[in-house]
Amino acid sequence: MTTNDEILTVAEVAADLRCSKAHVHNAINGKVAGVTPLPAIHMGRRKLVRRSALERWKRANEKGSFDAMIPASPEVDAVRPMRGEPHAS
Question: Is residue 72, in this structure, part of any structural domain at all?
Fold first, then answer.
């Protein structure tokens, strides 16, 4: 079995993504806002994820996400201290 054909448990996916198993289940069930559902093999209550599907899912959900998450705001001046606050030296 090659690395891309490796079958992962929810716990292994959670470790790879550095999140909880519950969050992985939510991702599989399409309950995480802003990302597509994570493809999984359903065996009753047990869910398994192919390594290649996880890697494709991660790439698909990271594209353009940084631009959408942090919109530019012309009203914020992060360099100048706010009025009435002492300047840090």
Answer: no
Range of the domain at 20: 3-63
- Give rounded-to-5 percent helix, strand, coil for the chain: 40, 10, 45
pTM above 0.70, yes or no: no
SS (H, E, C) 11-71: HHHHHHHCCCHHHHHHHHCCCCCCCCCCCCEEECCEEEEEHHHHHHHHHHHHCCHHHHHCC
Residue with tokens 């490796």: 6
Residue 8 lies in a domain: yes
pLDDT in tens, 27-82: 999 999 999 999 999 999 999 999 999 999 999 999 765 555 555 545 555 555 55
**Both tokens of residue 24?**
């992985």
